[in-house]
Specification:
single chain; 19 strands; 18-stranded antiparallel β-barrel; 2 helices
């Protein structure tokens, strides 16, 4: 599988670079943020809470380059985070993501690539709502795709995604490195200018360093509908089948007559599987002074140790502008995570509340004040983990850099 994948990705990169070398238009939007705040539970633990003032310097940029047939867009962000009273927890995090495409006569080649270096309490927590400790991790993703336009209203997509996650500290960290291969195909059809329907079939296989292999097959269908220029909604639902294969060690007694004289280790292959349903939906509404979006979903997530976790989540995002210079934001999120329908020892709930106030006091300058509350509860214990973080953020929005050739 590796040889065709590398040839496809290499061909796409070569075609894109050659096409972008001429008649390209480059756009770069840099941003610099300086955040000063306080975190009262850095590791978000139920016990032994560590607190400290924190300073974060975060330069970032979104970029794009395009020709009539090809293009690349992406973003890069670096966080230099320093805890004044817990310097051992200082870290430098990197987030990099790109999408490259090349249009053919009736189809489009695509390539997505991203790299993340952060801690398990950053992007992994956003994916799963599960806190198992604060450990540094590296995630690499690469995904080629091919989209074929059957006609003006219908297209077919075939894609492959490879993901590799490594945790610093090895087995002593309590986390296990893993990699994932995902194959997906979908069909999308526009019924009219307002309605689009689609069907997606995906197969994902994950293996970790503890010799645990899991597969997840998911079939989902649904559509999106635009009620007006300011209101739209989407809803998808389907079935999934998840299977886990692993080896289990046990001790078999050795008898001498009726007396046990020892034990013999036996390694056996085990498997577990179950069925479930998945869904995702959302409503987006734009107002004269702001916008609101409501979302909900249920899916199988393999972002922790490569072990399947069923994550049900709901979220609300709201923006309101009082004037051209003042605005407020409110983000709410709730997660329900469980390892399977039978095992409740890994089940937990996670909540997040984050209000924010913004002041655009100059053309390119913004000052923001924010507060974030996080809480995780466990089904099998009475322990709760809570975290309170407050930030004052100064942002400089660099003027766009545009170059045409």
């Amino acid at each position: 599988m590796r040889l065709p994948f590398r040839k496809t990705a290499g061909t796409l990169l070569l075609v894109s670079v050659t096409s972008l070398a001429s008649a390209a238009e480059w756009k770069i939007d840099p941003t610099v943020k300086l955040k000063v705040g306080y975190n009262d539970n850095i590791r978000m633990g139920a016990d032994d809470e560590l607190s400290s003032p924190v300073v974060i310097l975060s330069p970032s940029a979104t970029f794009s380059v395009a020709t009539p047939r090809s293009g690349t867009r992406g973003d890069l962000r670096v966080n230099f985070r320093r805890f004044t009273e817990e310097s051992d927890l200082d870290d430098d995090n990197i987030y990099f993501r790109t999408h490259t495409y090349h249009r053919l006569e009736r189809s489009t080649l695509g390539l997505d690539a991203d790299f993340v270096r952060d801690t398990t309490l950053d992007s992994q927590l956003d994916d799963t709502g599960v806190v198992l400790g604060r450990v540094k991790r590296h995630r690499y993703n690469l995904g080629p795709s091919w989209t074929w336009n059957y006609d003006e209203r219908t297209n077919l997509l075939f894609g492959y995604d490879y993901s590799n996650v490594k945790y610093e500290g090895g087995s002593s960290s309590g986390f296990v490195d893993f990699h994932t291969n995902t194959f997906r195909t979908s069909m999308q059809h526009a019924l009219n200018e307002r309605t689009t329907v689609s069907t997606t079939l995906s197969y994902r296989r994950t293996s970790n360093d503890n010799k645990v292999d899991t597969t997840n097959t998911n079939l989902q269908a649904g559509g999106s509908y635009r009620f007006s220029e300011t209101l739209s909604a989407n809803l998808f639902g389907g079935l999934r089948h998840t299977r886990a294969e692993f080896s289990q060690n046990s001790q078999v007694p050795i008898f001498d007559g009726d007396t046990i004289i020892g034990f013999r280790p036996v390694r056996s292959d085990e498997s577990q599987s179950d069925w479930g349903y998945t869904f995702s939906g959302g409503v987006d509404k734009s107002f004269l002074r702001g916008r609101s979006s409501l979302s909900a979903s249920r899916s199988i997530n393999n972002s922790i140790n490569g072990v399947p976790i069923e994550v049900t989540r709901a979220g609300l995002k709201n923006l309101y502008r009082f004037s051209e210079t003042w605005s407020t934001e409110l983000n709410l999120a709730a997660y329900r995570s469980q390892t399977s329908a039978d095992a409740r020892n890994g089940n937990r709930k996670y909540y997040q509340v984050e209000p924010k106030v913004n002041w655009q006091f100059r053309q390119f300058w913004r000052l923001s004040g924010s507060y974030r509350y996080r809480k995780q509860t466990f089904d099998n214990t009475g322990d709760d983990a809570t975290q309170n973080v407050a930030y004052l953020t100064l942002t400089y929005l660099w003027p766009r850099i545009a170059v045409s050739r």
